[in-house]
Design goal:
The protein has 249 residues and is α+β, with helices and mostly antiparallel strands. The chain has one domain. It has helices spanning 17-30, 40-47, 63-78, 103-120, 174-180, 184-201, 220-224, 237-244, and strands at residues 52-56, 88-92, 140-142, 145-152, 168-173. A five-stranded mixed β-sheet has the order 1-2-5-4-3, with helices on both faces. It is globular. 34% of the residues are buried.
């Protein structure tokens, strides 16, 4: 379906069955009081109806990247109207045959899609962000906006905070995170609560790659896609895919 959706939108009746089910399961996950989702800012965005939702096709199809680019472009143009806790939630039409795929396949698709977005981006990369993801200040940019990316998949079993019934992205503008971090004492308190929730939510220890943006030992790309164990890639695939696409890095 084209366009962005909100919780309780009257256009929900136009959605396909898989789209309705994805929204329903997401709403249940975000509103669960007995087992609250660890990311408190995300639950605030959900409860205040600041999240926006979009649907794209099969993750394995190249055409799906164009659908993703179209939705992210629309969101980028409108996001500042949605509130200080907004994010774009993208659900992929994940076929049943793919739901048993290993985490590593989803990981590769995720990085291919990020590289594909950059290939379709009509805007120049922001001057204040290095193009090398192995620089601690690097973060993903699209349409002139800086974004934090989060990916959840059906393959995640131990890391429930990264599990969803279909492949899913949560895309959060950097300005949202900056707004959240304005009060250092508040941000520190919330981050401590998030880590406590995470320890209870997942059946595995907190991934060692979770860190703070801008820290010298932090690399944002490592946090975008966390594996279902404590391992991680040694080099960012985005860097490699961009070279294949002929992009400067």
């Amino acid at each position: 379906m084209n366009g962005l959706y909100t919780h309780g939108s009257s256009s929900r009746g136009e959605l396909l069955e898989w789209e309705k089910q994805a929204l329903k399961k997401f709403f249940l996950k975000m509103s669960d009081k007995e087992k609250p989702f660890p990311c408190i800012p995300a639950t605030i965005g959900f409860s205040t109806n600041q999240l926006r939702y979009g649907f794209v096709g099969n993750p394995r199809r190249d055409t799906t990247i164009k659908e993703l680019a179209s939705l992210l472009t629309t969101y980028t143009e409108q996001s500042r109207e949605f509130g200080n806790y907004t994010s774009l939630i993208i659900f992929y039409e994940t076929p049943e045959s793919m739901k048993n795929a290993p985490v590593e396949e989803y990981e590769q698709i995720f990085w291919e899609h990020l590289s594909g977005l950059t290939a379709l981006d009509a805007f120049e990369w922001p001057n204040d962000i290095p193009q090398d993801p192995h620089d601690p200040v690097w973060e993903f940019c699209f349409n002139g906006e800086k974004y934090f990316m989060y990916c959840a998949t059906p393959a995640h079993k131990n890391r429930k905070s990264r599990h969803f019934d279909v492949m899913m992205l949560a895309i959060t503008p950097r300005w949202v995170l900056q707004e959240f971090n304005k009060s250092q004492s508040y941000a520190k308190r919330i981050k401590s609560q998030v880590r406590k929730r995470l320890a209870k939510y997942d059946s595995i220890s907190i991934h060692p790659d979770l860190n703070t943006y801008g820290a010298q030992d932090n690399f944002e790309w490592r946090q975008y896609f966390l594996r279902d164990d404590d391992t991680s890639l040694s080099k960012c695939p985005y860097h490699r895919f961009l070279k294949l696409l002929g992009k400067n890095t």
